[in-house]
Amino acid sequence: MPQPFMTFTSRCVPLNEENIDTDQIIPARFLKGTSRTGLRKNLFNDRRYQDDGTPNPAFVLNNPKYAGQILLSGDNFGCGSSREHAPWALTDYGFRAIIASSFADIFKNNALKNNLLPVALKPNEVKALFKAVEANPALEITIDLADQQVLTPQGTLMFDIDPFRKQCLLKGKDDIGYTLGHLNEIEAYEQTHQSTPVSLSLKSQ
Amino acid sequence: MNPHSSAKTLYQKIWDQHVVHPKGENPEGLPTILYIDRHLIHEVTSPQAFQGLRDRQLPLRHPEKIIATMDHSIPTIGKQPDGSLKFTDPQAEAQVNALSKNCQEFGITLHDLTSDYQGIIHVIAPELGAIHPGMTVVCGDSHTSTHGAFGALAHGIGTSEVEHVFATQCLLQNPSKSMEIRIDGKLASGVTAKDIILAVIAKIGVGGGTGYVFEYTGSAIQNMSMEGRMTVCNMSIEGGARAGLIAPDDITFAYLKDKPFSPKGAEWDKAVSFWKTLKTDPNAVYDKTIVLKAEEIEPMVTYGTNPGMAVGISQCIPPTNSDSELAEALNYMQLSPDTPIANTPIDVVFIGSCTNSRMEDLRIAAKLAKGHHVAENMRALVVPGSQEVKKQAEAEGLSQIFIDAGFEWREPGCSMCIAMNGDQLEPGQACASTSNRNFKGRQGQGGRTFLVSPPMAAAAAIKGYLTDIRYWNQN
Ligand code: SF4
């Protein structure tokens, strides 16, 4: 069961790019495991390490100026492959929220199911945050999910979140329990809608 | 969409038919519990979901609705002399073994490497006739959008959702907006379904479809084969859409007739009359419509590091102006702005993936390759999408044409589309690929991917550089 998502205050890591795809977040060759943990060392692997395996000083995660539990990024964060290994790697590394101007659909869903909060702010707000963090890497901001606010020294920014998702996060509840609470309706649906089973009919051929 | 109108889009019809809860008004804005008819699984995104089910001590609700195969990390070089398979690493092998074990434990039929139906999950499910119009289909894989070609609502999900579908046969969803993508007219010779979808994504951008389900309409789509329609719907996700749909018609029904899991006899007639109702009503309103003219679409090629960075083969790579993302992409791709994309040298050609590894793709590529030989120092692979495609291509003599022309003829799998199984680019190598993603490192760390259609890929293999297929016969 997930832990309830609490208000927290942290510094930010600025990854000032658009269209960060899940192949970058965790390259496919690290998807061969069978558990959800242990992915932190390969987060952003091909950008974080040089060919000889040493840290790439040009990549923001290796910049000693920056640290924190909030990743700041541009438009369409998490596009591409549906791999849930992307939020697993981000949370395993220690991130608790991503602030970006927009998120790809599947990534957003996957993140919400893993206690990783996708916070979409307006493009000009994200731009201003990048500027503020780059000017002052020690800057701390607070993410308050209950009030849907990001508190920054420059002011308070509001963000949207699906009300159901918000409650799940705040209460540490997950979807399966919710849906199984509607088992009667699922069974009723199945009574009236029969679709061809596929494995059984193949076996009987 | 207008909630007061009774006219519905195809998307709304399928959605409404699968709502389990809440029916009607939804003042609290709860997500819809949507019933799922088909669940496709493979080795990479399922193990944690099976483990989750075990941890919760929950049964798997409907193992008989699942199609399972192994495709992503399996070797495509065939068996070793001793009959074993050579995996790149023990982890990949362990993952594949975990799938076998999980399927056995939970009673799922697995199309493993000994099955006549093994192959890329999005190639085998349609071949089996397991995808019917009007179904909801999910898979822990973003290219599940492929199956929208049948007028099924099909989308990729994450592993937590795989577990959710295992446990409940449902998914929690909020409705998407609808976007009509109309392509009217007739494609020029040498221009394929792949070029249409690359042109669409170039137009709307990789995030242009976020929040939408696409419906492809227009005469160019209506005249397209099922294989072409699958190619188009496959890449809907590259435009950011949740799914892509094409209304079923006689071409769809002809494809499905007599497939292993298609309805038979009286059931077939009943099914077809239902399937015929699955189209957008004449008065229904899409949230957005974009229109492309088929005649204006050229053979497309990507120049950058996402699928939206694409131009016609006769065009120049755009100027970077102050676009730092583009500048970085061109730097990675070792290309210069304002220069023609044609004649770019290519080291490797990959014909395969769930986008372009079906019979139609192999036939058109083989037609070009016939009587030619791949360029010097060129590495060219043809990886059929499934055992069935492989068998058919061998029966038609296509495999021999490829082999004679210097291509490698492989076993079915994802192979160099995702570079998990050892089939991968060396750093710096340029690859003309029929797959769907040109992200940095997608085909191997440091590799440079140019997405193209199968005939464009075959032509590049022979020439050694990107060339305009429309002038092939004049060369
Ligand atoms: S062929 Fe490529 S895109 Fe398709 S399922 Fe396999 S890895 Fe994914």
Unreliable stretches of chain B? none
**Proportion of residues in helical segments of chain B:** 25-40%
Portion of residues within helices of chain A: 25-40%
- Tell me the number of helical segments of chain A per DSSP (H or I, 4 or more residues long): 9
Distance between the amino and carboxyl termini of chain B: 51 Å
Number of strands of chain B: 19
The general outline of chain A is: globular
Evaluate the radius of gyration of chain A.
20 Å
Number of helices of chain B: 15
Say what the CATH topology of chain A is.
Answer: Aconitase, domain 4
The pLDDT mean of chain A sits at: 93
CATH superfamily of chain A: Aconitase, domain 4
Low-confidence stretches of chain A: none
Describe it.
The complex is a heterodimer of chains A (205) and B (475). Chain A has one domain: Aconitase, domain 4, CATH 3.20.19. Helix content of chain A is 33%, strand content 15%. Chain A has nine helices and eight strands. In chain A, helix 3 links the parallel strand 3 and strand 4. Chain A is globular. The N and C termini of chain A lie far apart (42 Å). By secondary structure, chain B is an alpha/beta fold. Chain B contains 15 helices and 19 strands. In chain B, the strands form five sheets. In chain B, strands 5-4-3-6-7 form a five-stranded parallel sheet. Chains A and B meet through helix 4, helix 7, helix 8 and helix 9 of A and helix 2, helix 3 and helix 5 of B. The site of iron/sulfur cluster has 13 residues of chain B, from loops.
